[in-house]
Specification:
Blueprint: H1 3-16, H2 20-36, H3 43-49, H4 54-60, H5 64-82, H6 93-109, H7 114-121, H8 126-148, H9 161-177, H10 184-202
Helix pairs in contact: 2-3, 2-5, 5-6, 5-8, 6-9, 6-10, 8-9, 9-10
Domain HTH tetR-type: 19-79
Protein name: TetR/AcrR family transcriptional regulator
DNA-binding region: 42-61
């Protein structure tokens, strides 16, 4: 094995192992993508943001694309986790819809412009598309199963559950993603509007809706 081969093997091994340095680079990449956008972000800028060098970057990540994929993986995990709220099984449907809508929108807000970027990159990057599509399928399946399990007397959905859920998720993702750097007032207005839209689309009776 040549020196070059040995160095590449060492780099590959480090890339396969999660650690503080790699996490620092991923955090720096997320900040660069959010601040500068995808095209303007470079490996050099990510390394500088992480207060390290270009060679160190390549010791843990193969490219800017791989860095973005790592960021997207973290963001998708956060979005999925936002829909896994504890103690909601015994709550009325209106309260559950309100809580999950708010939690999901706030998770998108917390990632600035990254969610919009993931949605855009999914059109041109197969790995990002696979990740994004998998998350969307899981969210649709979970929400559809929840609605399908409710007492038909409690809701009156305006469309078949799976199609309705898909539309509502798109509405939250695309709407909230545009407000990644908006004011708190604008974000709160969007959440409340989205909650009202969801309640009406699902068919929650007006007298069953919680007070704003």
């Amino acid at each position: 094995m040549t020196t070059s081969d040995a160095q590449e093997r060492a780099r590959a091994n480090r890339r396969e192992t999660s650690g503080p340095r790699r996490e620092e680079l991923i955090a720096a990449a997320a900040a660069c993508f959010d601040d500068l956008g995808y095209p303007a972000t470079t490996v050099e800028l990510i390394a500088a943001r992480a207060r390290t060098s270009r060679p160190t970057f390549y010791a843990y990540l193969r490219s800017k694309d791989e860095a973005f994929l790592a960021v997207a993986e973290q963001v998708c995990a956060e979005l999925e986790s936002a829909q896994q709220l504890d103690g909601i099984e015994s709550l009325p449907p209106a309260a559950v819809l309100r809580m999950t809508t708010r939690a999901f929108a706030e998770a998108i807000f917390a990632n600035g412009s990254i969610v919009a970027m993931i949605d855009s990159r999914a059109a041109v990057d197969a790995e990002v598309d696979a990740l994004w599509s998998t998350l969307r399928r899981r969210l649709v399946r979970r929400f559809t199963n929840y609605l399908s399990g409710l007492d038909p007397a409690a809701i009156d959905p305006c469309a078949p559950p799976q199609r309705l859920v898909s539309m509502l998720i798109d509405s939250i993702v695309h709407g909230a993603a545009r407000l990644g750097h908006a004011s708190g007032e604008d974000r709160e207005r969007f959440i409340n509007d989205q909650i009202r839209l969801t309640e009406r689309a699902v068919g929650i009776a007006a007298d069953a809706r919680p007070e704003p």
